[in-house]
Amino acid sequence: MSSTTLQRPQQRRLSLNARVPVLNMTLGGFLVRVALIALVVIWTIPTFGLFISSFRNPDLLPISGWWTSLGTAVRTQAARTGTADDQIQQEDGTYVITGNVLEEGGGSVRAFGLTANNPVAFQVGDVAELDNGGTLSISEDGTYTLQSPQPFEMDRGQRIYYEAALPPSFTLANYEQVLTSEGIDQSFINTFTVTIPATIIPIAIAAFAAYAFSWMEFRGRQVLFAVVVGLLVVPLQMSLIPLLRMYNSVSQTLPFFEAKSYPGIWLAHTGFGLPLAIFLLRNYIGGLPRELIESAKIDGASHFQIFTRLVLPLSVPALASFAIFQFLWVWNDLLVALVFLTKDADQIVLTSKLRELLGSRGDNWEILTASAFVSIIVPLIVFFSLQRYFVRGLLAGSVKGG
């Protein structure tokens, strides 16, 4: 038997083994795609539910979830009949009070009762006996009839408990309530007044600092950069009160500086955003080709000229990435705005204004669903305008090092 024949089984085994990594890699890629799709779906479901809830009838939100928005909801609640002033004497001598328990909510009545412990004691069309000798009946459309052989002497009316079936209902009332509320337009302008400078100022400072940490030699550069990065772990909440007290002391020394003012909140957001901005931009700028910087120095360019004419144009993706982050943080901020701004009409921001719409006890909490989508309109426009730079700048800034 020839050596070629003996080698064929071994060659076949080698070829099969060579295919195994390909199959495993294909299976791994499939599992990664499935996991990615699952994460996207899980992440999107709450947002989709919030979007559906923003169009639902406010009466349906407390009693059923958004996933039941296309079905009939069942609600048990109480109502009162008319009073003695509403009674009408019939020809046969009986006294009657009529009305409808569904005048506001709509839907249909399934059952009713006279006590909270048993709100479905009677079916629609049944006649319930009252303690005073009268009777009560309710039809499916919510019309009730209260009869008594004696005149009614009640001042508040008979309490009725009933179970109502509410059909699916969608409305723009939530959005209308938010968009037509007093001062909402000024709060949009105030939010822009806070967000735009609070985004531009830290980017400008961080870009200069990132270039210095990357391409300028000075004593203590690495230690100073480590301190800046270490500031990332400092909780924002711990610095609010000390910073506000410092603002108050400065405002007493400098009359033109006010603690509760736009410059104050601009500086606060700048300080809170600088550590991450310097970290991201330094990694990106430090990863630029060294030959490019050195050739510019040989040609006699100063650091300022290299930064403005060479580094800045090449760092647009990283600048856009941080601009998106900073814009979203400042636009959605509530805590810093409450500390460093007043609630006056010329300073209250959108998040604080929407919070005020809820009332002191949160009675109108259902408008939060519409408020969420009203407040994210501008951030979505900013994100989709800069999204082509976002991933490229973020990835480059996270893997390159100087």
What's the quick description here?
With 402 residues, the protein is of the alpha+beta class.
SSE order and pairing:
Blueprint: H1 3-54, E1 73-80, E2 88-89, E3 95-100, E4 108-113, E5 122-123, E6 127-129, E7 135-138, E8 143-148, E9 159-166, H2 173-179, H3 184-215, H4 221-230, H5 236-253, H6 262-286, H7 290-298, H8 303-314, H9 316-331, H10 335-340, H11 350-357, H12 367-375, H13 377-399
Antiparallel strand pairs: 1-9, 2-3, 3-8, 4-5, 4-9, 6-7, 7-8
Helix pairs in contact: 1-12, 2-12, 3-6, 3-9, 3-11, 4-6, 6-9, 6-13, 9-13, 11-12
Attribute tags:
56% helix, 11% strand, disordered N terminus, alpha+beta, 402 residues, MetI-like fold, disordered C terminus, five-stranded antiparallel sheet, four-stranded antiparallel sheet, elongated
First-to-last CA distance: 64 Å
Task: Please count the beta strands (DSSP E, at least 2 residues each).
Answer: 9
Give the CATH H-level superfamily of the largest domain.
MetI-like
Helix content: 55-70%
- Low-confidence stretches are 1-6, 18-23, 397-402
Question: Which CATH first-tier class of the largest domain would you pick?
Answer: Mainly Alpha
Helix/strand-derived category reads: alpha+beta
Shape: elongated
Q: Major β-sheet, in short?
A: 5 strands, antiparallel
Might you state the CATH topology name of the largest domain? Answer: MetI-like fold
Quote the average pLDDT: 82
Strand order of the largest sheet: 2-3-8-7-6
User: Count the helices. How many?
Assistant: 13
